[in-house]
Amino acid sequence: MVMFLVIFAAALLFSSIGFKKYVWFISLGYGFAVAAIGVVLLIAFAKSLSASTALACVLFIIYGLRLGGYLAVRELKSTAYNDKMKTEIKSGKGMSIGAKIAIWTSAALLYACETSPVLFRLQSGKTSVLLIVGMIISVIGLVFESLADFQKNQAKKKNPKRFVDTGLYKIVRCPNYFGEMLFWTGVFVGGLNIYSNVWQWIAVLLGYLGIIYVMFGGARRLEMRQNRTYGSDPEYKEYVSKTPIMIPLIPLYSVEKYKWLVA
Asked: Quick one: three-class SS letters along the chain?
């Protein structure tokens, strides 16, 4: 429990950037908090790390820095993105400090729970093939979402006003979210044989199911935004009718009607 509180504190510290702009609690703060947790775990368990557990921690650092860096560049350099988000996301002006604290603490708790499988693995002192399998899944997810972000950037440079249906977007409409889910699926799977009590299962399930929920909520918000922007385009209508929104080969083409999905 003590080390869980330590990674929770790290998540709180690095996600506190959201007090400057509240959406950063769940964007920039998310990436940098996960990277910070990876560093904390490396330091705290330095004497007992194996090659595989060390790599599991390093994956958090790579994941977090990639995501945080990508979002930071987009925030600082993409005028078009920022102009669009002004109409899509509330500025947070007038939000009470109590509401901000609630978002901050709940988001940081989610980040601690998401990363807890690696913490519990380190505390157990055990390594297994399952950890390797989980890391392979995570690496595939990291590559998938990184490539999706790159492909979208390249497509938008060529034609900023057109929806993206090239590259990975040919097989799924939200490949970056799918890659994100793969990454955390790998983290969850990597610890399946070491969750030893109810408290650990609660923590890992809250983290894993929580991020899956957030990703589907993000997909719903994106779908609604794209429908408003491209809804009258016949090519877009054909694209969304044939391309799964979230998971390749799974015939789920829309989540807009599911109002309980809130990102």
From this structure: CHHHHHHHHHHHHHHHHHHCCHHHHHCHHHHHHHHHHHHHHHHHCCCCCCHHHHHHHHHHHHHHHHHHHHHHHHHHHCHHHHHHHHHHCCCCCCCCHHHHHHHHHHHHHHHHHHHHHHHHHHHHCCCCHHHHHHHHHHHHHHHHHHHHHHHHHHHHHHCCCCCCCCHHHHCCCCHHHHHHHHHHHHHHHCCCCCCCCHHHHHHHHHHHHHHHHHHHHHHHHHHHHHHHHHCCCHHHHHHHHHCCCCCCCCCCCCCCCCCCCCC
